[in-house]
Specification:
Blueprint: H1 3-9, H2 15-22, E1 31-34, H3 40-51, E2 56-59, E3 77-80, H4 86-96, E4 100-105, E5 108-113, H5 114-117, E6 127-136, H6 138-148, E7 171-179, H7 180-191, E8 194-200, E9 210-216, E10 221-225, E11 228-229, E12 235-236
Parallel strand pairs: 2-5, 2-8
Antiparallel strand pairs: 1-3, 4-5, 6-7, 8-9, 9-10, 11-12
Helix pairs in contact: 3-4, 6-7
Length: 244
């Protein structure tokens, strides 16, 4: 593995489970076409996780995936990941796009930009004194995560109809003194068929520009931006040019 990956993997507490996930072989036809587009690596990571299936955590580099109406560059080559172990495939992904590092945490695959992963001041690394989801679905988990980060709460779990079997899955999480990223990892691990994603609307990896999402592998999902409600009932949203 690359040096960053070795450092991260050395901290994991469940070597048997880690080996079980990392040694699994990719059987689906998954290829990385070159030259890379800005969001190629995150997209391929999602395909690998869903094909296995293995819970995934994914933070995107704060940039646009592409300009609307602009043609993609002509593809000249491709890297075939089919037949590779998970460990080798993710090593290959971060070799192709060195902005990212990856690791595995007790059965969850994680891909994040290196600059935010090792930034102790980044909001995903923020300390949370207590995190708990008690027999809730992903909407409850999203509310708890976003509330812990200082964002607005969304509709309650019981108000959101499940549109797929996986989004109707109930689970529980209870953590003391953790971080936001570890709370997200615990959520997708407890659910089993879920990924968390953080993406940015502007080229800075800050919470006010972030959208946090939870997506099931069968197509349902929930997302929250850091929009806040003013005293007069209007909303302030750093991702839109005009506040509503």
């Amino acid at each position: 593995m690359v040096a960053a990956t070795v450092l991260l993997c050395a901290t994991m507490a469940a070597p048997a489970l880690q080996a079980q996930v990392l040694d699994r072989v990719i059987e689906d036809d998954i290829r990385v076409r070159l030259p890379l587009l800005p969001c190629t690596v995150p997209g391929v990571a999602i395909r690998i996780a869903e094909s296995l299936p293995v819970p995934l955590g994914l933070e995107l580099v704060p940039e646009s995936c592409g300009e609307p109406g602009k043609n993609a560059p002509e593809r000249e080559d491709e890297v075939v990941l089919t037949g590779m172990s998970v460990s080798r495939a993710f090593d290959r992904l971060v070799e192709l796009d060195k902005r990212y590092v990856w690791s595995e945490a007790d059965g969850v695959l994680i891909v994040r930009p290196g600059v935010t992963w090792f930034d102790t001041n980044h909001f995903l690394n923020r300390k949370i004194p207590l995190f708990r989801v008690k027999e809730g679905r992903m909407w409850t988990a999203m509310n708890e995560v976003h509330s812990a980060l200082g964002g607005a709460r969304g509709p309650a779990d019981e108000l959101m109809p499940a549109r797929t079997p996986q989004s109707d899955r109930m689970f529980s999480v209870s953590l003391r003194t953790t971080t936001a990223v570890d709370a997200l990892n615990a959520v997708v691990r407890a659910h089993g068929l879920l990924r968390w994603t953080v993406e940015y609307c502007k080229p800075q990896a800050r919470f006010e520009y972030a959208t946090v999402r939870l997506n099931t592998f069968d197509g349902d999902g929930v997302g929250r931006r850091s929009a806040t409600q003013r005293d007069d009932g209007t909303w302030s949203d750093a991702c839109v040019s005009m506040n509503r």
